[in-house]
Request: fold
Amino acid sequence: MPWRSNFRRISVVNKYLFLAYSFVWLIFVLYVWNLNRRQTRLKKELDEVKSKVTESASTTTSGPSGS
Reply:
C-alpha cells in the first residue's frame, strides 16, 4: 500500500521538523539568557561607576579650601 510509505515519510519529516523547531527555540532561549546576563553585569558595573563618581564628587567639594 503506497499510502503507508507516504505516512512513514511524513512521520519522519515531522520528526525532523520538530527537532529543527526545538533547536531554533533552544538557540533563541540561550541568546535571550545571554543578553539578560550581560545586561545584569553592565547594570552592576554602571552602578559601581556611578557610586565612584558620586564619591569622587563629594570628596572634591568637601575638601579643604585653603587656596
DSSP finds one helix and no strands in the chain. The radius of gyration is 29 Å. Residues 24-49 form one domain. The helical segments are 2-61.
